[in-house]
Amino acid sequence: MITNFDELISRVKACSKKTLAVAVAQDDAVLEAVQEAKKQGIADAILVGDEEKIRKVADSLQMDLSGYRIIHEPDDWQAALTAVKLAHDGEADMYMKGLLDTKSFLKSILDKEVGLRTGRPLSHVAVFEVEGIRQLLFLTDVAFITYPTLEDKVHIIENTVEVAHACGLECPKVAPVAAVEVVNPKMPATVDAAELTKMNEEGKITGCIVDGPLSMDIAIDPEAAAHKGASGRRVAGDADIILFPDIHAGNLVYKTLVHTAKVENGCILTGTKVPAILTSRSDSFRTKVNSIALAAVVAEGLKK
């Protein structure tokens, strides 16, 4: 079981070296992360975009491009299609957004001809190493599905469990969180959580243990679980996957952790043929490198 990002990167290095396809690669922050990923042996990269601009950005970073394959495509949309096709055709193990708007990046993933559709809905998982918590936390969905239905939540769990398995968790513990740890018909999130727990018990959701509803403190803090008399719950105080009721709850927790706690994190889109790395300009350099490492571990898991 991987408990931090140093261990995750070590796991990557023990695998066959992965290749990353970058759409519209003329982005200084992304190229800097790609350079570090190559330096650490995490992944090689195929850079797709305007070659003159890519080289200009690389020069500003003192980045040697001699070891990279560059595909010249000055049109952003065509660059996205070219890069995603590399992943679709198996020439790349991961797909990453460069200087491309998010809408176009997602559109390329969903392209019927060269995209990364699997038939499952896409969802987002953010993996956190938090000081004071012994295991990695998988937070989902904090950035993609706005108001997930019960069916959506099943798919989100399936997608995230796949990521957790790739990180060495044989049977991750899933906590569908809410404001309270008891079912209240007036609080739909608690009703959904109970239904997901039942589906898990009936074998309709597999590869994990689901127990909800749980409040956030009971899900991750053994002392809080004991204090509230919830130590007997199967996930209490030891959750690996935190399933949020909606994007507001997930995004607020995500940003609170990033801006107030000592953390390392990485994020990927799941439900795709290969892992897709959707980072923003505001994400730190470390988050981008960690996201590439996380994608590489998941790519290895998908190959197996």
Would you mind describing this structure in some detail?
The protein is α/β, with parallel strands linked by helices. 42% of the residues lie in helices and 17% in strands. It has 2 domains: 5-117 and 272-303, 3-Layer(aba) Sandwich (Rossmann fold), CATH 3.40.50.10950; 123-260, Isopropylmalate Dehydrogenase (3-Layer(aba) Sandwich), CATH 3.40.718.10. The protein has 11 helices and 11 strands. Helix 4 runs parallel beside helix 5 and helix 6 (150-166) crosses helix 11 (285-303). The longest helix has 19 residues, at 285-303. The chain is elongated, with a radius of gyration of 19 Å. The chain starts with a helix and ends with a helix. The relative contact order is 0.17.
Brief description of this entry?
The chain has 304 residues and is α/β, with parallel strands linked by helices.
Number of helical stretches of at least 4 residues: 11
In CATH, the architecture of the largest domain is 3-Layer(aba) Sandwich
Largest sheet: 6 strands, mixed
CATH class of the largest domain, anyone?
Alpha Beta
Could you spell the SSE succession in H and E letters? HEHEHEHEHEEHEHEHHEHEEH
**Helix fraction bin:** 40-55%
State the end-to-end distance.
Answer: 17 Å
Share of residues in strands: 15-25%
Overall shape: it is elongated
